[in-house]
User: Fold this.
Amino acid sequence: MGNSYKISIIKGDGIGPEIVDEAVKILDAVSYMFDFTVSYEEYLMGGAAIDVTGVPLPNETITGVLDSDACLFGAIGGPKWDNLERELRPESGLLKFRKEMGVFANLRPAIVYDELANASSLKPEVIKGVDIMVVRELIGGIYFGEPKGRDENKAFNTMVYSKSEVTRIAHTAFKLAMKRGKKVCSIDKANVLDVSQLWRDTVEEVAKEYPEVELTHMYVDNAAMQLIANPKQFDVMLTGNIFGDILSDEASMLSGSIGLLPSASTGEKTAIYEPIHGSAPDIAGQGIANPIATISSVSMMLRYSLDEIEAANTIDNAIKKALGEGYRTKDIAAFDAKEVVSTTEMGDIIAKYLTN
Assistant:
């Protein structure tokens, strides 16, 4: 018998339970195929946690996830909880969760499947073959900076980065680049912001430890333009929290559907794997949600946390086979669909192709 892993599960709200169930189905299948075992513990966060405990992030969830090898997370939030005070909303629980977990590096791949090149709003010749990894610093910058405040006439937030925070996220980006195309483009606004100049200087220092990796710099406004004009120029994009929040969403739309793309949030304590999309309460319970992003998140978990590379590759190939055979969920049904399938059916099809 091979290795044994403890995985924490947070299904969350909306379509979260549906898509996580399909991802667990795939993880169970590959664990059997590759002779390792997985045990699960389920925890609450978001609206589901508010309904049961009165708070969006119970202490039990923090303790349980920290005690696991990795966390598979669905999505949280919905209009049911939008009128609560800000600190009690599901989204406040998510920010606190990331901080408590110490997950400082958000990895957001933007991959265009050949079978769905027509799904993007850009021309196929522009986006076909795109394979970008956005590395976003996740627990620093303007979202967490102090001081901050608001009165009747003004409000302010502070964008702060320490050299140590930049150093650790830069190492993450360069290590990923060494396993990819050996290119890092660091995104900042050093022509205007002192904090960005510190970012740039620090990244250049870290780059000296990775002489095989080509480092370039780009201002964030130009990067936003270049992602649309020539996305294939990028391999690893390294950036701070607020810039990364915007650029990773922009990059995700190159694929044509946010239902396709996974993410990882990693740190020294644990790692969280989740789809980039939200809880989509308007389609919850209808069996039409696309589970591919969550299944791909399992692939990232196997690759980056559990070191089960062959199992990760097997999942990636099964997804490509399912798309190549023309199976589509409703969100991508307009693009060369031979058969439109439900959430559960897509999970079953990908599971079948794990061995075919």
User: Anything to note?
Assistant: The longest strand covers residues 4-12. The chain has a mean pLDDT of 94. The two ends are 24 Å apart (CA to CA). Residues 105 and 172 are 7 Å apart (CA to CA).
